[in-house]
Amino acid sequence: CVEKLNQTIYEEFYKIAFRKKLYSSLDSLQEDLDVFMSYYNKERTNQGKHCLGKTPYETLEQGYKLYERYVMDGEPLPGKEKEANASSSSTPFSNLQNEKTEVTTAQKMN
Known about the structure:
By secondary structure, the chain is mainly alpha-helical. The protein contains 5 helices and no strands. The chain has helices spanning 2-20, 26-42, 56-72, 81-87, 94-109.
């Protein structure tokens, strides 16, 4: 992913920008790069086969909504409702707590 982004920045920004303008400072170059990155993230559709023509920002927004729903709010994944109901009465690490207690009890018996 990072390599592809670097390639895109090189091909779609640097190659064009350096032909059109002679930069006298890094600040000036950074300003133009910031404008390009805003365009890249919010206007230019992603060409990846799984992106379905969405911009990177749209993909991030949709992914974050799913993250909130399934991770932060704890809603079970589709098709995993039965597993969630079976384990909803315990915390993810409660089985480890019980195992530790059992070992401690076993050690006392010896």
